[in-house]
Amino acid sequence: MALGSRQSRRDVLKLTAYSTAGALLGAPAVRAQTKSLTMMHESSFVPPYDAFFKNKLAAAYEKEKGIKVNYEVVSVGSLLTRVTTAAENASGPDMTAIGFNWAFLFDDKFVDVSDIAAEIGKESGGWYESAQESVVVNGKWKAIPFGNIGQLMNWRTDWFKQAGYDKFPETWDELLEAGIKLKKAGHPFGFELGHGFGDNHGWLYPLLWSYGAREVEADGKTIVIDSDETARAVDYCRRLYKETMVEDCLGWTDVNNNKAFLSEQISCTNNAESILWAAKKDFPEMAKVIDQSENPKGPKGRFHMLNPLCHSIFTHTKDQKASKDFLRWLMAPAQAGPWLDIAVTYYQPFLHKYDDAPMWKVEPRNLPYRDALKTAHLPGWPAPLSRAQSESVAKFVVVDMFAKACAGKSTKEVIADAAAQLKQIYRAT
Amino acid sequence: MTVERRGWRVRLLTLWLPLAVAMFFALFPFYWMAITSLKTNQELYSRKVMPLIVHNPTLKHYVDLLTETSFLEWTWNTLLVAVISTAISLILGAMLAYPLARLRFAGAAMVSFAIAATYLVPQPLLFVPLADLINRLGLNDTLTSVILTYPTLLIPFCAWLLMGYFRTVPVELEDAARIDGASRLQTLVRIVLPLCGPGFISAGIFAFTLAQNEFLYALIFLTKTEVRTVPVGAIAELVRGDVFYWGQLMAAALLGSIPVAIIYSFFVEHYVAGLTAGGVKG
Fold first, then answer.
1. Is the distance from CB of B24 to CB of B210 less than 8 angstroms?
2. Within an 8 Å CB–CB cutoff, is residue B239 touching chain A?
3. CB-facing half-sphere around the CA of B250: CA atoms within 13 A
């Protein structure tokens, strides 16, 4: 380090003495004060949710701590690309929203936040067990879970009533029975069986699990898709498709079932809260006769899809402590509560403190989303997080197994195809 | 009289009918965009009304697009980026294409192959290293980042198109200029380039359209709303979860296609001439 010409030898000695004394007394290392942090998020389905962060939370933090927090919004479906770029180049935002098994995929790029996760859990009534499924990697929390974007059965109460159902069917078999009656009455079902990003996995994995079937054992190695349980789930799905659904849902993506439901083409589908939300906005009369229910039970119980939104800190951030302090502040009830409220349960919190929060009373029809958290899992469950899990989802192995059966292939054939694919995927990774 | 009638019928069957079919396929997407952008959400989702006409037209989607999003800013950014990157690509593309089309030098075949190979490298392979470069240059969230990266796609494309076109210019014209004392550069600037106007127009329109529609680099390098281009801005703000704001998306698509349509309408004759020259004779 070059010293200025005006500094005397005495100044240098003083500086050295102060620095040594500081180090010996355990004073914090001298570092530049963090002036700003950046949080990256995918644009929310609920526009006020993004606005609340930018206008309220960020402003409050700057006022309180003097640190400006930028909120960088990326388009839907683009977050993984941005996270990959930031992680690989070790540059860009300090913190990011993540989903699915990204905590595992970017394990070495994310900071261990176990300490603040424990504090937050203690402060807010403890974490749901499902919260840990996607963020704990090798015993370390690599993200702080925020909320689940659950998938439930969306159905028309008026048409179900006409067919003799006051309540949503409890089991898959009862749902089939109801669907047959409703299709005859001109109100078929429509469940996504195409290559979308969520509404296909959202009901097909729970269906598979509820029959006691799995892709892979908990050891993450033994492929067990070729089983009698899978065959029964596939046979059921084929009947549900042929006897209750509109034909074109084989090619649907996530947009199509929303459109079909809102255009009164179908009476039941599996979706997040977006259908009810859109109906309230544009079709208030229809919104009065929409309800949402947990997935039906199968022979081995009731299951749901885990679709978590969590926050991670990149290891490349210049000040990990500042990012941790911010996440800790963000997850305190004074901040997380109003942020969750603004989205009106679209993000179902993973903390038990919010189990009876006022937001659930704003729209009681959303309550089943909270209850579904107890039986929610990631695709690939019960195997631990892995790259193979991502590949199986990206290649639509389970979705295609069911869809091909619906399109006419034999049960034996579709299961053999899925088993061969899974063996290749899990062996290769 | 009979011959005249038959001629009219033949003309109808061989010219006007195929033209009408072609026009229908070409224009129907625009018609669909236009009517979707003018319908209310209720009408958009209704299965009870005829979907090919607008029953209750509204400009709400246009108003929302222009007032609730930064669409005008995105449009300005898009035009700026597309015009500058197209200009850079045309200049450098011409400098690359001319020697390859006219000069004989060692390694020319290798350079031609390298250009084609560069054009064929998929973007997903390049975005991570390019993002690293942009980051090192400190150009994140600036329009300069995409102005500098788009030519990596556009220069090989322009060079290939222009190479074909340069070869159609008679070499005797250049020889004559050289005999009269023009240097190689003067020959290029004063003789070849003026004769290649249509080629430049077609390469320019294609390059402009590619730059205007580019998504991946814009997504990676431009994250702030105020520096986004139309494709990224529209997707970020008008697609939320599994709900698409169809009316606003179609309004954005329609308004976004206007600049290309205007440019195209001015240069359509040269554009067609340029394409046929480059494609057939090259």
1. no
2. yes
3. 20
Tokens 């054009």: give the residue: B119
pLDDT tens profile B16-28: 999 999 999 989 9
ipTM of the complex as predicted: 0.73
The verdict on whether omega for the bond into residue A382 sits within 30 degrees of 0, i.e. cis, is yes
> How far apart are alpha carbons A383 and A97 in whole angstroms?
24
Note whether B127 and B26 are same-domain residues.
no
Q: Are residues A83 and A229 in the same domain?
A: no
Using the Cβ of A182 and the Cβ atoms of chain B, whether some distance falls under 8 Å is answered with: no
Same domain, A177 and A297: yes
Instruction: Report residue B21 CA to chain centroid gap.
Output: 24
Residues B121, B122, B124, CA angle at the centre, nearest 5°?
Answer: 135
CA–CA gap between residue A361 and residue B21 (Å, rounded): 57
Q: Which residues of A47-71 are buried (b: 16+ CB within 10 A; e: fewer)?
A: eebbebbeeebbeebeeeeebebeb
**Closest Cβ–Cβ partner in B128, B236, B242 for A85:** B128
Q: The domain that contains A249 carries what CATH number?
A: 3.40.190.10
B135 part of contact set with chain A, CB < 8 Å: yes
Q: Given an 8 Å threshold on Cβ–Cβ distance, is B223 in contact with A84?
A: no
Roughly what angle, to the nearest 10 degrees, separates helices A320-330 and A114-123?
A: 20
Q: Are residues A158 and A268 in the same domain?
A: yes
Residues A293 and A408 reside in one and the same domain:
yes
Q: What is the pLDDT of residue A4?
A: 39
Nearest residue to A81 via CA among B123, B119, B229: B123
Name residue B44's amino acid. L
Q: Are A226 and A412 in contact (CB under 8 A)?
A: no
Handedness of CA B189, B192, B196, B199 (dihedral sign): negative
Q: Would you state the torsion angle of the CA atoms of residues B58, B62, B63, B64, taken in this order, to the nearest 10 degrees?
A: 110
pLDDT per residue over A90-122, tens digit each?
988 999 999 999 999 999 999 999 999 999 999
What's the pTM value of the predicted model, to 2 decimals? 0.82
Interface probe, candidates A75, A253, A258, A281, chain B, greatest B C-beta count within 10 A: A75
A73·B225 Cβ contact <8 A: yes
A360 touches chain B (CB under 8 A): no
Give residue-wise pLDDT tens across range B38-90. Answer: 999 999 988 888 989 999 999 999 999 999 899 999 999 999 999 999 999 99
> DSSP E strands: which ranges in A257-347?
268-271, 290-293, 304-305, 308-313
The residue in chain A having the minimum alpha-carbon distance to the alpha carbon of residue B46 is A263
Give the burial class of B201: count Cβ atoms within 10 A of its Cβ; 0-12 exposed, 13-18 middle, 19 or more buried: buried
CA distance B242 to chain A (A): 5
Q: Look at residue B54 and tell me if it is in a domain.
A: no
Same domain for B140 and B273, yes or no, is: yes
The answer as to whether A380 is a domain residue is no
Between A and B, how many residue pairs show a Cβ–Cβ distance under 8 A? 93
User: Is the residue at A15 inside a domain?
Assistant: no
Q: Domain tally for chain A?
A: 2
A246 φψ region: left (φ > 0), alpha (ψ -120 to 50), beta (else): beta
Judged by a CB distance cut-off of 8 A, whether residue B193 touches chain A is no
B70 CB-contact burial (10 Å; exposed 0-12 / middle 13-18 / buried 19+): middle
- Residue B1 sits at the chain A interface (C-beta within 8 Å): no
Percent of chain B that is helix, strand, coil (3-state, to 5): 80, 0, 20
Q: Contact at 8 Å (CB) between B194 and B77?
A: no
